[in-house]
Amino acid sequence: MNEDEHGMDNPRSTFSAAGALALAAFWLCGCNDPGPVGPAPSGQGPAPETSVTPTGIKMVLVPAGRFVMGSEDGPQDEAPPRTVELGAFLMDTNEVTQESFRRLMGRNPSKFEGANRPVERLSYFGAVQYCNMRSLREKLTPCYDLDTLACDFSADGYRLPTEAEWEYACRAGTTTPWSFGNDARKLGDSAWFQRNAGKATHPVRQKRPNAWGLYDMHGNVAEWCHDFYDAGYYQRGETQDPRGPKSGDERVLRGGHWAGSAETCRSAARASEQPGFSDVCFGYERYGFRCVRKTPRD
To answer: pLDDT tens-digit profile of 17-36?
Structure first.
């Protein structure tokens, strides 16, 4: 992977009325996650609607809406910005932890061990295997064919977010380079990155969440997305629920990581890697993920 070229080392959204209705209709579960929780942002509207899965993982309802994906000010692969419309979906409030991964998969591949730290040293293949296992554990229909890696978006199980879903959720209604604003000096309040991470991951939910209650969208570990990577895709990509190119050699990673610069943690920043990448000498311990699924009423 070339991080400079793909954006890891180097905005504008509109929250729709349909999204507000989706939020109002969603059932709010009163369960609480264990572990530390960072301070919630103030003055950014009502608390996000959440639920807790049968496997004990908190998810947020990301409302349907539209936003401008990409950036005019970043690397060329973020341009041209285009308006994208998305349906509602559920997203994990934090990156999949080592404890969650170990419980389902019976192993923990991570370098920086800790039950509440994000799982890392994980390939794209490992992430989709977890998605299917979590689906089966909750008696949902798995999304992935593990022989072809084809994803059935109509299934009610877990999958990786599309690149558009990820950026939309990260922005949480904002149009600025980061979900908290324009000032990179404030990134440390929301992210673990090269200036404050101490060359390691950290437990999830320690930093400030975005306005939709999502933690660590900036930094900690870079997150695998569904899409194949194509530097020129934004020039021809779909505008309604885009799912990326049909084929490619690499998959998209989003969000920056503990060793990345503030620029790599921007909401629009793109990166990529081969899905079976396994060389820990070149950043494998920087890759993790979180899950999404369709809303139960879809």
So the answer is: 333 333 333 333 333 333 33
